[in-house]
Design brief:
The strands form 2 sheets. Strands 2, 4, 5, 6, 9, 10 and 11 form a 7-stranded mixed sheet that branches. A 4-stranded antiparallel sheet has the order 1-3-8-7, with no helix packed on it. The termini are far apart. By secondary structure, the protein is mostly beta strands. It contains no helices and 11 strands.
């Protein structure tokens, strides 16, 4: 059983930056594809970014391309989401995800994810 704990959320002004971190435990981190989803009030959960177990070919939602960067540190069992040029529409609860041997577009689909964190709230003020 993999446990995921997100941190780094908070309140930031539009145009600012924030870095989310997800600490994983309970599994061999390097064998898991990792991702970030978000859910805004009244909206469906959507994929934001993902990185395969091998660390190759990160995926990004069109809405965050060029602004967000996902990375992983296998030595620290951590996945990061660096967010810049934040917009009010980025306001949401952000969830960390993990999928055994996960890669490709599977990581960007709710149904393709095995483990979820409890989420961290990001609020972007205008």
């Amino acid at each position: 059983q993999v446990q995921l704990v997100e941190s780094g959320g908070g309140l930031v002004q539009a145009g600012g930056s924030l870095r989310l971190s997800c600490a994983a435990s309970g599994g061999t981190f390097s064998t898991y594809g990792m991702g970030w989803f978000r859910q805004a009030p009244g909206k469906e959960r959507e994929s934001v970014a993902a990185i395969s177990w091998s660390g190759s070919n990160p995926y990004y939602a069109d809405s965050v391309k060029g602004r967000f960067t996902i990375s992983r540190d296998n030595a620290k069992n951590t996945v990061l989401l660096q967010m810049s040029s934040l917009k009010p529409e980025d306001t949401a609860v952000y969830y960390c995800t993990a999928t055994k041997w996960g890669s490709g577009s599977r990581l960007m689909k709710v149904g393709g994810v095995e483990y979820w964190g409890k989420g961290t709230l990001v609020t972007v003020s205008s």
